[in-house]
């Protein structure tokens, strides 16, 4: 899940190869990822082996963090790691 549609529009990274498995969404809003199946909304939530969030968390408001972490917990397998990073410095342009 990507928070911005810029990579999709530019066909950057893996969007060209995995276009049916990548999508944009707002992770601070309620969501449930479910597999495409005949069970539809009754299908259990997708359980991921690993979830990563590179330079994402600094963009999330403090009030939205509990809900986000609850969703990460819902979609992460019991022994699966969550790996993330934040940008602490300010970029300068030259």
From TrEMBL:
<dbReference type="GO" id="GO:0032259">
    <property type="term" value="P:methylation"/>
</dbReference>
<protein>
    <submittedName>
        <fullName>Class I SAM-dependent methyltransferase</fullName>
    </submittedName>
</protein>
<dbReference type="Pfam" id="PF13489">
    <property type="entry name" value="Methyltransf_23"/>
</dbReference>
<keyword id="KW-0489">Methyltransferase</keyword>
<dbReference type="InterPro" id="IPR029063">
    <property type="entry name" value="SAM-dependent_MTases_sf"/>
</dbReference>
<dbReference type="GO" id="GO:0008168">
    <property type="term" value="F:methyltransferase activity"/>
</dbReference>
<keyword id="KW-0808">Transferase</keyword>
